[in-house]
Predict the 3D structure of the following.
Amino acid sequence: MRFRSLAQYEQQLKWLALVLGLASTIAIVQNWHPWPMLLGLPFCMIWIYCAWLHTERQLKYINILFSVLYVYGIAKYALAG
């Protein structure tokens, strides 16, 4: 499947991102570690893709930064056991 072929699913991806964002927020409030990171990473990945479709550089780079931080946090959690 080509990268651009997902463009037809952009609205569904945004709804999925909304659900992931809400679930991540609930996980933060309930202190369900590491779920906020595990739910937040796909949220950021969806928004990176949507920003790439519309060349929204600022949104893309902010979400890339957050994705790197999420990957760092998930790796640290996995290695700490």
